[in-house]
Amino acid sequence: MARPVTNNDLPEPPRTAVYGAPPLDLVDVPPDAAQLSPLRPGSQAIEALPDGALDDLVVAAPPGSIERRFVLAHALRALRPGGTLTVLGAKDKGGGRLRGELEGFGCEVAERFKARQRLCTVTRPPTPQGLDEAIAEGSPVLVEKIGLQSQPGIFSWNRIDPGSALLVRHLPAFAGHGADLGAGLGILSRAVLASPKVEALTLIEIDRRAVDAAKLNVTDPRARFNWADARETKLTELDFVVTNPPFHAEGIEDRGLGQAFIASAARMLRRSGTLLLVANRHMPYEAALRTAFRSVETRVEEAGYKIFEARK
Ligand SMILES: C[S@@+](CC[C@H](N)C(=O)[O-])C[C@H]1O[C@@H](n2cnc3c(N)ncnc32)[C@H](O)[C@@H]1O
Questions:
Q1: Which of 138, 169, 204 is where one domain is finished?
Q2: What CATH number should be reported for the domain holding residue 66?
Q3: pTM, whole model, 2 decimals?
Q4: pLDDT digits (tens, 9 = 90+) for 111-141
Q5: Of all atoms in ligand 1, which is nearest to the CA of residue 207?
Q6: Which residues, judged by CB distance below 6 Å to any ligand atom, belong to the binding site of ligand 1?
Q7: What is the DSSP string of the chain?
Q8: Which of 116, 138, 160 is the last residue of a domain?
């Protein structure tokens, strides 16, 4: 008979951790710090840390205010009283609000300015205030107006992105095996799975919160979920790929990301497989499409967006 699991069998929680990717020239992160981030596949969730487990935590503050207050509240919850929290944020990406937000939780804040970043350091007070409210406000939720499970911090978390809406309207009935790269909440995937000829669809997404939400939004048994970087996937021989590619990596604009998604889609498709991609018409994707695919057509151009169909 199996031995019952005891507390002694559970892995020790980390004592020190880093959330996100703070600029390492501005702050010291101990080499043994556990990596926390919903955007780093395989890393731990700050939400899952036990209360009072950490001695030190460095946080790269997310830009969205609900998401940021959620992360700060979890940071203070997960630190032991007297533990140290260092938070960094660019002034125009929420850094300017950090001091007030931390003071609102009852912290005494030491603030410094370095290279356009605000650095706030606090010692975790014995009884921080308002943590439960901030955590509740930033937690997963059913967004009634779009009828989807979501969470602040996910791309376009409480509205349908116009590019995705356009692609949904113009989606052909696919067949066979496919993937949705950067699947987000699963809006495109749900529409793809409306075709009975689709045998399997893999939703690949780098944001764990979006993957968790998509599992509730896309309940079709043909869907598979992969918390992963779409540039590194090992899937091959697919019949089709759909994508509304990202142009930000951890808050920083990166136009190369969409180009890398195109190259990745080309590797994943079988001969004559189809890529359907929607993007803002100003995005520089046509050259990358023509390099990676035999034929490229603009299927739709509407309201500032383009849908490209490319065949391998
Ligand atoms: C423009 S959004 C599209 C989301 C969703 N498909 C939709 O139509 O609403 C791009 C998505 O790609 C995800 N993403 C960003 N970088 C990624 C990467 N390297 N690998 C996989 N997904 C990524 C983002 O988290 C975001 O959900």
A1: 138
A2: 3.40.50.150
A3: 0.94
A4: 999 888 999 999 999 999 999 999 999 999 9
A5: 25
A6: 155-156, 161, 164, 182-184, 187-188, 204-207, 210, 229-231, 244, 246, 257
A7: -PPPP-GGGSPPPPSEEEES---TTTS---TTPEEE-TTSTTPBPGGGSPTT-EEEEEEE--SSHHHHHHHHHHHHHHEEEEEEEEEEEEGGGTHHHHHHHHHHTT--EEEEEETTEEEEEEEPPSS-SSHHHHHHHHS-EEETTTTEEE-BTBTTTTS--HHHHHHHHT-----EEEEEET-TTSHHHHHHTTSTTEEEEEEEES-HHHHHHHHHH---TTEEEEES-GGG----SEEEEEE----EETTEE-THHHHHHHHHHHHHEEEEEEEEEEEETTSS-HHHHHHH-SEEEEEEEETTEEEEEEE-
A8: 138
